Amino acid sequence: MHGGGGGGGGAQVGRYGTARTRIASSDESAQRAANAEAPKIPHLLRRIAELFAPHRGALVTTVVLVLVGAALAIIPPLLTQRAFDDGLFPVDASGAVSGPNLPVLMWLVIAMIAVFVVSALLGVWQTWLTATIGNSVMGTLRVRLFTHLQAMELSFFTRTKTGIIQSRLQNDVGGVAGVLTNTVSSVLGNTVTVISAFIAMLLLNWQLTLIALVLMPFMVIAQRRVGQVRARIAGKTQESLSEMTAITQETLSVSGILLSKSFTRQRSEIERYAEENRNQIRLQVKQQMTGQWFFAMVNIFMSSIPAIVYLVAGWLIAGGTAGLTAGTIVAFTTVQARLLFPLMGLMRVALDLQTSSALFARIFEYLDLRPTITDAPEAREVPVGHGVAPDGAADVGEVPGTRGALGRVEFDEVSFRYPDADDESRPTLDGVSFTIEPGQFAAFVGPSGAGKTTVSYLVPRLYEASSGTVRFAGVDVRELRQESLMSHIGIVSQETYLFHATIAENLRYARPDATDAELEAAARAANIHDTIASFPDGYDTVVGERGYRLSGGEKQRIAIARVLLKDPAVLVLDEATSALDTISERVVQQALDDAARGRTTIAIAHRLSTVVAADVIFVVVAGRIVERGTHAELVDAGGVYASLYRQQEERPVQGAGALEP
């Protein structure tokens, strides 16, 4: 077992792949600009409403709780008025203030406490409902989007940045939950609170209400100014956080650590991170201090309104205004103090609704993508015939190489052009025809970019042929269910992908129900069992991120064992040994030869020495098959293959000569 070689992000990725800093909630102009980038989705509101259909009962209950809770919030100030006027300072028949009326005061205090308790319980219930609804819808969307992306064709992922896809799944879908759990209850609650408060204020004293209404806009404007000033700093702070995240992702991944250590750049990476950290500290402090004078003014202003109310109340009482008591003044200032934040919340309602619509639009944009490769309405299973396994076949499960026509692969005048290719450019494949019989070992060789790997993509229908017909087991692949087709094909590529899990878990990715004995049989067939057994934890050994704890040859043989566990009828080897050293290549090649025995094998080869024993070799040049035959036949023909073979044979000799003194 050899030593060898992931991060979160604070930045969102824009619709077309450019980095876009997460917008601070208080920066309304920036948020509106980001919302404007969202795609236009027809019937968006109807589609959003459909997401909430399973939660109708909970939604109705939430609305009722919000309305009741907002209404209850106005009762305590009114009870406060009565506590002062009827409990603490009651007036007798003669108009003189008598001692406290303790029984009345007790009942008023009990009533106030009861209102507080009920409001708190309703608030907890409302929070649970909104959180449940919001996160349920978010979870449904996330699974729907992930499921939909699983169905997309390979070309979608080759032309779309991974960061964009992650942003839709994490940032956009995650943002929906916050909007869902806050917007509706905020709109309803703030609206009812503001209306109820104004009604209560009018009932208490209409003159004082006019004074509060005149002063309230100045307080709201001051508060908005503070938010705008702080938002500009918040944007720079988020950019700095994004940069720190990028540094972390680049340098603390396995590949990044290997790179920094191999070039002894750890000190420079530490200094780069420390410098950005110092910038982050500076911005955080600046963000906290920015607008402090504004906050001080707002606090002074908020404190001044009750004082002004007291002054105006004094004038009114001195002028002989009837009904203006101490209880009325206290209750009025209590209600007035509760108006600021609901009013500011309502001012953001339009932005919140726009933000939620933008998030949903981005999500629905992906959900509306239609895979270009789908099952036909009458798609059927791959037909499975019967046959007798040849001698010497692999001993892992039933050998499928001769099950009737199951292993036959045919190309009939197949041409292919990648979806994003220029219409004027030459096609990647141009009129390619061949037949590979069940159990044959067929190799495709040729210069880089000739179209060899494209052949391996068209067999399992990872891409769709532009013209012509690809047949599997005698049936056009477009008439077969994709899942059924892929279940009979195993692929071993040059870049082996292993999960950060145990060897056993990586193997069982092919067959979750495989027994330990079947795992061992597959590993033995791939010539990796003895190596695994030598590890202290055996098959429970964790391979590390992307299998970095294993050597290249070990990873490749585990990948071969995983394919053998699947037991495919057709094995596709896409330059499976080109990245290995000579010794590892020999070991892996032996495992591949054992895996290929008894099943149809399609090998995309860079090193011709790995395919000299192939039953048929196809030479591909510029998207066309220019030669075909066995190794001996092609060498004798003296064509393209013979030239390539001579070049590869001469390289070691020339290299050895160069080392001579």
From TrEMBL:
GO MF term set: ATP binding
UniProt subcellular location: Cell membrane
PROSITE patterns in the cross-refs: ABC_TM1F, ABC_TRANSPORTER_1, ABC_TRANSPORTER_2
ABC transmembrane type-1 domain: residues covered: 60-355
Presence of keyword Cell inner membrane: no
Record has Nucleotide-binding as a keyword: yes
CDD domains: ABC_6TM_exporter_like
Transmembrane segments: 57-79, 104-125, 169-188, 194-222, 293-317
Its membrane topology: Multi-pass membrane protein
Residues covered by the ABC transporter domain: 409-647
PANTHER family linked to this entry: ATP-BINDING CASSETTE SUB-FAMILY B MEMBER 10, MITOCHONDRIAL (PTHR43394:SF1), ATP-DEPENDENT PERMEASE MDL1, MITOCHONDRIAL (PTHR43394)
Protein name in the entry: ABC transporter ATP-binding protein
